[in-house]
Structures are given as structure tokens and as C-alpha cells.
Amino acid sequence: MKFKTVQEIARLYTNYFQKKGHTIVPSSSLIPKGDPTLLFTTAGMVQFKPLFTGAVELPYTRAASIQKCVRTTDLEVVGKTERHCTFFEMLGNFSFGDYFKKEAIEYALDFSLNQLEIPKDKIWVTIYLDDDEAKKIWMDAGIPEERIVRLGKKDNFWGPAGDSGACGPCSELYLDRGPEKGGPTCGNNPNCKPGCDCDRYLEYWNLVFNQFNQTVSGELLPLKQTGIDTGSGLERVAMLLQEVDSVYDTDELKTIIQKIESLSGFQYNESTKQSFRVITDHSRSVFFSLGDGIFPDRTGRGYVIRRLIRRASLFARKIGIHEPFLYKLVGTLKDLYVARYPELKDKAKDIESILKKEEELFLHTLEVGLEELESLLSHLMANKQTLVTGKEGFRLYSTYGFPREMTKELVEDRGFSFDDKGFEGELEKDRDLSRASWKGKKIQYLTGLSASPELKTEFLGYTESKATGKILYLFVDGKSVNSAKQGEEVVIVLDKTPFYAEGGGQIGDTGYFKKEGFQFQVQDTQKENDTFLHMGMVLKGSISVGDMVEAEIEVERRQNLANHHSGTHLLNGALRRILGTHVTQKGSIVSADYLRFDFSHPKALSPEEIIQIESDVNEAVSANIPVKTEVLDLNQAKESGALSMFDEKYGSLVRVVSMGEKSKEFCGGTHVTNTKEIGFFAIVKEGSPGAGNRRIEAICGESVVSYFLHQFQTLASKIETHNLFAKEAFGDLKEFGITKEVPSPEGLQSIFLKDGKTAVASLRKLRETLETELEEKSSSLFKAKKKLEQQKFQMNPELVDGLLQKAHQFAKGKVVTEVFPSVDAKALKDLADSLKAKEPEILCLFGTTEGESSTLVFMCNKVLNEKGIHCGEMLKETLVMLDGKGGGRPDMAQGGGKKPEFVAKSLEFALSLAKTKLS
């Protein structure tokens, strides 16, 4: 076979299908649009799901794409095998009610033979068990019968992507790599063929013949139109054409490996290949995810990205890299992929910056965390124990930042087991604890010392994020001590510090103290008078009073605190301008994630007032107002018009923070230098903490973009489901469909970039408009659909005969079970009477669902009562599955409950009860 580069294969693919009349559609974001069932885009067809179901009007009937994908289901084996990746590119061609099996098969074979130049005698295919149509097409195309293999549902029935969507039987193309790849077991085995676990036959293209739409409950419904969804892994095709044994030896991935060699000084070989492969793969996943706006976080997609970064850092240590390094691969990655994804060119610098910060954050604690883990495992081995408890695992998580899955992988690699359940319990306990536990000890720590001038701390944090400080006091368990060692919870007092102590609503800084052989994690900073208390854990080494340490705050967290604190000031000013000067601050919390502001006001804010307040703040943010701070005499400050808290005690000198005409307040907190740094501002909640007061919760910066992204993704999913139901029920979307476009992740970013001043207001208005339309049309659709179902039910003379034909036959009688959507109980009883009239010895077990409720109707003639059937008793037993209530006579019973998704299973249970009586 002729060697072809990855880029060449991609170009051949798009050119070929463009000539075959396909629209070449750019890769969608790794954030699946309108699909909350997926964390990431995992297949080429994800962006086309609405087109397969017929839920939207078709912009084209045939398409092709090269889709970037992330899958992390087999994360632990990445690096250990030749072909597992978390990031990959999927070649795909698609048909939406246009061509079907014949053309899909012919295109795949033609492209394989004439573009990829694969020898025809090396191609094998598999088909679904009963797909004789596909078999005939393959044979007509020239593939002999002996190279066509039938496989079952596990191998040859695909989909959907996520919990719902298009799916169907499939046919796969395999390349015969020769008997030598079969190993000692299959090398000379004439019965070896596709489906075998050996490496001789390698699948490189999957053709899915979409015929069904799977609902979230697992029901397969015929699609309004058949479709084609194909997928061919670009890396895998390259591996075959370049005749190498691993995707990591293909030209593009090899380039990344060569860059890692130059960074580490290690060579890629048998002993180092796992580390090189993990770093190569994870760097791609992180690079593309950051490019699509998926940032490291504590939950969801962001958690997965953080885990990939940290896993790569661990494997980097095995090849001598002990510093941030993934960000150094960004330039190589950009050069490799910018031809296929030109948008990455302008994002590379931001990706590099975010990645470096995240690596630095983890590396603060990685080394001492690994030492702690090694010590723990040595202790367990010495005591002949094999279980790492949840408590031990949680300590690695909470103190050293080790994700649970990473700890589990590390200990299992060493032959130990991990207590997942115990970890979850520790996590739950931790959620119940409050930082107040630190604060409660504050007085105890300072007993007898608070009046000492030696305890005064000089605060440098308004201008510095790092500083060298001398340790004045150490407190362990509430007692002043001369030294502290690894593993102890300690409170440290320095002579000077960049750490802000909680006050004025702003929570305390976190970060690290370091010196050679010593590391201390600051988990909170509190203050008593002029004494700053740095509360946390000694991670490494020991420390003594009088020692000098380097104190460094978590800069990104401080910036987020500054954004939210300055946003609080602008909010206060906006409230007074829009609601009136009666508004006074009653309290606030400023965290890195959000702000909360309590103020005096007699009634709830209207939607119009919320938009006005947001717009006022965002106008100030966009105005690039310099933030001015000055220290004034108390009376001078009051005369300047600066706002102050009425119950706050101030000294003779006060710090005043001004933001042009928008805000002027007494404040000791940390702030941005220019309002533009805040980015964006959005109110996420408004309520009342008590009579006469209101409470606003709001967010600033990139959190606003993420907030609206989540809002619109959820809304898009609801609209997609609604449109699907509308089309299924009435064949089109004219009366009940919602056709307004929901902004994509890229669209949202462009809206914010275009005009941050108006973005929040316009997006809020758009969201509310769509929500109102969805609510109104959903209500109309529900009523119309229910009416339609009732008409179909009542006007169907063949229904009785159809039910009788599929009734369960037992020795003493028949049982018919059926679930009907949106049918009332009276109609079910009428149907049961019709069945009883035709078949005296029949038991009818009917169910119906509507919204979140469910109804069961059980009926039979008295002849079955004499054989042991009691409808009322059977119903009571069955309704337990639905959290329901009901009852009735031996010959008729009715009840209702919740859990509509369990109605079918509840009828199966009732059938089993009847079987014991009638068999």
C-alpha cells in the first residue's frame, strides 16, 4: 500500500465526497450542542442528530465532515495499547433521507480502492446477522461471499450517540494485515476472520444504516426517513496505510513524540512508550478542549480536562519532566492542526497561558503528594494490607489535589485496591463541614497574645502576590509552638504577607509558603485586629519560629475575587441609581466563584429592573474606568460622598475605592485596576433573606459565558425534544415547531466579544423569549397530541383484533398487556369490555402515561375470578413499582402513580403474577 500522510488522507476524503454531491460541514465544537446526555462530542454524527430524526428542516440531504472527538471511557488503558486515544478525528459521510445502503457501500469501497489504494483482496466486511440486503450489495460490488461475515448486535448494531437518537444495523470494513499479525494462536488458523480478538483483521470504517430513533427510555421507533452515518478513524486509517503497528507511530503523532523527546531528553522506546503516548494523547485532548472553551474545573467537562492535565503531569515525571511542560507543546500542536482547524491559530496563545497556569497549580503539591502516597503504600505493605481506604484517598484529594480516579489508577497499578464507597462518604462529610471550624478556633489561637505588638502583620497584598516573610508565631491545636512538621494542621503568623484576610465580605486568600525542603498549603486566611492568621497544612518538611518563607497567593483565584468584589461595588451603585437612594448594603459575600449582596428594599425586583441593573453594571465594565484607591481621613472620606456600612467600625484613616461616577465606597478589599478586567456581569438569582431586604447572587468574568452556555444548551435540548414530538405527531413543525436558532458556543462567544455592554441583556431576552415560546407551544402540542391520540384510539376497529392476536396464552386463560400514551382510564375500560366480549377468559392489564403520572387499569370476567385472579389485589402489588395508590374489585381495578418510565415493567410484573394463577 502507498504511504499517505494524515493531512493527505483528510484532503482525499473531503475532495471525494464533495465530488459526490456532499456538503462539507466543518467540525462542530467538542461541547455537544443541545445534548445534555453527552459530556463531549464523541462521534461525527452528533451535530447531525436533529437532521436524522427529522426534528429540523434539512439544510442539505448529504454531508461529509472531519469531526474532532473526545472519549474518556477507556482512559486508564490509554498509553498501554497501540490504538486507544481520548482525542481522535472521525471521517464521516452522511445521508438524511437521500441515499441508503447501496450508495453507502459503493462509496466506501470505491474510496478504499481508488483513493486509499487498498488492495481489493485485503478487504473483508461484516454485516448484521439478518441483513441479507447488505450482503447482496457487497457481493454485487465485487466482495466474495467468503469475505463477508455476519456478526451480532454487540458488533454490528450502532448507536445512538448518547441516551437517545438515530441508530441501526451496520456494516464494517476490515483490512487483512496478514497471517503474521494473527500471532501464535491465529497465524495459521484458516477459521480466523473479522470478529476475532487477534490483530490480523483491523476495522477501519463503520457504515451505519440508520432506521430507528431510540428514545431515552430505550424504545426503538422507526425514523421518518432512513439515513446513513459512517465513521472512519483518521488516525487508524493512517496507521494502516503507513503500515505501522500503532497510531502513535503515524506521522502527526510522531511529530508530537519527537517534541517530547527534545523537552525531556529521553528517547521514545519500549520502556518509555507509555509515558510518551499518554502525554501525546492527553495534550491533544486538552489543546482542542481549551480551544472550544472547556476550561479546567471541579465538575463536568472541566473536571475531565483537569484530570487529563494531571495524569499527563504524572507520566511526565517518569521521563524526567518535573516542571510545567504541556503548554510547550501548544506551538507544535497548532502547526500540525491549523490547516484543518484554522480557528486554532488565534487561540493558541490563550490555550498556552491557561494550560501553564493549570500545570503550575497542580505541581505545587504533586511531588509531596506522591511522597505521601508512597509512604502510605509502604505502610500498607509492611502491615500486609491491600486496601487504600476512602479516608486515605480523600486526604490525597483534598490536600494534594489528586483526583479520585487518578489515585485509584496509581494504587491499582501497584496491586492495591481502592475504597470508592468510603471516598464518597468522606466527600459527603467534607461538604457538611464549614470554614467556620477554622474561625471558631481563632480566639483560642490568640488567647493572651492579641494585644502583643509583635503580632502585627504588614499587609502587602494590594500590590504584591509574592513576598518573603518571617514566621512570628506557630499554632498547633490552639497552642503556641516553636516548630511544626509534615502532616500537621497549623496556623502561621508572618511579619508581612501578600495574603488577604477575610473581611468586608471578601473571603480569605489561599496559596503556599515555601522554602527549601518545606511546603505549607494555606487553606484560609483570617484576621484578628492587625494579626493575619494563615491556616492550613504542612505538606512537606518542617518549620520553626523565626524561619523565612516565600509566601505566594493563588493568583488566578485572587483575580476572580477582585472581579467579583469590584462587581459588587458596581452593583451597589446600580441599585441606588435604579431603585433609589433608600438602598443600603446589609451584607455581602465575595468569593472566587460568585458574589452575594444583601440590601434594603421592600419588594422583589421585576425582570425589567434586573435587566436595567445588569445593563448599568455592564456599561460600567465596558467603559474602561480606572479603579482608584486612596487613604483618607474618616471625615474627609465621608464628605467625599463615599458609601460606608452603617454598623462597621472605622479607624481615623479609611481606604476609599472609586470607579469614576459609578461607585465610591469605603473598602479594604482587593480590586481590579480597571473595570474592563471584570469582563461581564450577570445576575443569576434574586430573593429575600428576610423582611424588608432583598438578596442578589451574581457572577463575573468567564463564568458569565459558561452560565449562558449551559442555559442555552439545556434550552436547545428541550427544543429539540419538543420539535421531535411535534414532527412525530403531526408530520411537520408549521403549527407547533420552534424554528428560532439557539446560539452555538461559538455564537455565544462572538456575541460577548462583539459588545459586552449589551450581551447579557440581549441573551437574557432571547432566552426568555425562547422559554416563553417553548412553554406556550408545548402546552398547545400536549393538548393537540392528546386529542389526536384519543381520536386514533377510539377510531381504530383493528385494535381489539390486534391485541387478541398477541395475547399471552396460558392453560386457564389469556392475558393481554399494553401501554397506551395519553389515553384516559374510561377509554381503557371500554377497550377491555370489547376484549371481554370477544374472549370471556381474558385478563386485560393496561397502562397509560401522561407527563409525570401513570395509570393502570386491570379487568377480567368473573370466570377468571373463580380461577384465582383478583384484579384489586394484583393492582395493589403492582402499584408499589410506581409509588402509586389504587384498588378495586376482583373483576376491575384502577390506580395511579408516578414513575411513568416504569409502567411497562410494572405490567411485566403483573403478567408474572397472573401467570402463577393461570398456568
Automatic annotation (TrEMBL):
Main localization of the protein described in the UniProt heading: cytoplasm
Positions annotated to bind Zn(2+): 565, 569, 667, 671
InterPro entries recorded: aa-tRNA-synth_II/BPL/LPL (IPR045864), Ala-tRNA-lgiase_IIc (IPR002318), Ala-tRNA-ligase_IIc_anticod-bd (IPR018162), Ala-tRNA-synth_IIc_core (IPR018165), Ala-tRNA-synth_IIc_N (IPR018164), Ala-tRNA_ligase (IPR050058), Ala_tRNA_ligase_euk/bac (IPR023033), DHHA1_dom (IPR003156)
Coiled coil: 760-791
Reaction equations catalysed: tRNA(Ala) + L-alanine + ATP = L-alanyl-tRNA(Ala) + AMP + diphosphate
GO biological process: alanyl-tRNA aminoacylation
EC number of the protein: 6.1.1.7
GO cellular component terms, semicolon-separated: cytosol
The keyword Aminoacyl-tRNA synthetase belongs to this UniProt entry's keyword annotation: yes
Domain of life: Bacteria
Localization of this protein: Cytoplasm
Residue ranges occupied by any Alanyl-transfer RNA synthetases family profile domain in the UniProt entry: 4-710
Co-factor: note: Binds 1 zinc ion per subunit.
Family matches, as CDD domains: AlaRS_core
GO MF annotation terms: alanine-tRNA ligase activity; aminoacyl-tRNA deacylase activity; ATP binding; tRNA binding; zinc ion binding
Keywords recorded for this protein, A-Z: Aminoacyl-tRNA synthetase, ATP-binding, Coiled coil, Cytoplasm, Ligase, Metal-binding, Nucleotide-binding, Protein biosynthesis, RNA-binding, tRNA-binding, Zinc
NCBIfam families in the cross-refs: alaS
HAMAP family with a match to the protein in the record: Ala_tRNA_synth_B
Family assignment from sequence similarity: Belongs to the class-II aminoacyl-tRNA synthetase family.
Domain free text: Consists of three domains; the N-terminal catalytic domain, the editing domain and the C-terminal C-Ala domain. The editing domain removes incorrectly charged amino acids, while the C-Ala domain, along with tRNA(Ala), serves as a bridge to cooperatively bring together the editing and aminoacylation centers thus stimulating deacylation of misacylated tRNAs.
Purpose of the protein: Catalyzes the attachment of alanine to tRNA(Ala) in a two-step reaction: alanine is first activated by ATP to form Ala-AMP and then transferred to the acceptor end of tRNA(Ala). Also edits incorrectly charged Ser-tRNA(Ala) and Gly-tRNA(Ala) via its editing domain.
Name listed for the protein in its UniProt record: Alanine--tRNA ligase
Gene name, Swiss-Prot/TrEMBL: alaS
